Amino acid sequence: xxxxxxxxxxxxxxxxxxxxxxxxxxxxxxASLPDVSTxxxxxxxxSLAIKSRPENARAxxxxxxxxxxSGVDLQKLxxxxxxxxxxxxxxxxxxxxxxxxxxxxxxMIKAIANAKNNINFETYIFDQDALGMQFANLLIEKQRAGVxxxxxxxxxxxxGTPTEFFDRMRKAGIKLEEFNPVNPLKRFGPWRxxxxxxxxxxxxxxxxxxxxxxxxxxxxxxxxxxxxxKKETGSVGWRDTHIQIEGPAVAxxxxxxxxxxxxxxxxxxxxxxxxxxLGVAGDKTVRVLIxxxxxxxxxxxxxxxxxxxxxxxxxxxxxxxxxxxxxxxALTDAARRGVEVSMIFxxxxxxGLASQAGQSYYDQLLASGIKIYxxxxxxxxxxxAVIDGNWSTVGSANLDIRSFLHNYEANVIIMGDEFGxxxxxxxxxxxxxxxxxxxxxxxxxxxxxxxxxWAARSLGYWL
Length: 463
Description:
This protein is an alpha/beta fold.
């Protein structure tokens, strides 16, 4: 069996990593995560106690100004923004859990094909490969059919993608924005190269939304054999998770896209029906967490709160684990008070440095009783957690300092036992294809491995 990661993909991802590390080492490090002792710890199903910061007001005023010419109800938009600041519970949603690339991409392609008015798409990686061309061709087809397509793509995430790939879509009428361009001549305003748009958001007609960890890359074209015990030969895709959302929560992801566009864009968005009425679509209560650098650390706070309030179980899957010591303490404290904490990491990673940085924490985790597993079937890229079987999150954020401090991320928290049960089943299936790392075995690793872990951990702020 071989993993679906070609030499070209490895080279492309290595270039992205080297760019980020270079930027980190050449830009002064001054930002830091907040002191958790100042948090107002509440039950995990409550809203976060967050005061709006000046930058929130500035971003809102920019968005309102950019949309003042459009048919958007600005009064309702302002009310939506005020609500979004505290990420309140939003009821009446239908949430579909999507496993791996093929299932996710199939659902996204179906939604795009059925679009009638507008498509807003935000992604970190948009490769020019067979899958990327399929997406680009479909989006061009919809644009020519009269559906306005707006795309935000990250400059570092697409650093290996030829400019001609995006120019072809522009010529078809699609509006594209390159997020925080590496080339300073393309950027108006502050040149914040270390701040990357890591979100994966697709909103179709303002009525159906997708978010999670899946990028547009051939690595997702094949199944990871998730939920299958067959050890077949051939290409194996990455293991990832996405969700499809219908209902009132869609408006919050649409708002996030439009705010990002307003902060980056040189062009105003066309006048379209971005915020149609959204009735009850299901019985799921969710919270939409949209985080950004120099923001309110809403995602970091949500994780800390959830770990500190856990009573029975914490089950985590994450490809990159390089958190601050406060998060490590929240996890180890939970294990020491009797919470069963289990974490699944990748056995093979597209980023050796990030993997080694994560391994540098294994000693602390294992000493507290946390169980560590490494997925063997595929390259793990899913960023999920389920706590006490009724608090679940799926999104773009890894459990690392970069996600909480430097990146623009989007996660959705889903409350309830039914969806929590689906997440637990997914976790158990991953466990069945994972090997456990025991404390005795880990204590016997080589000195060379320990040195590599120490060196990688020293770069954790930038990885």
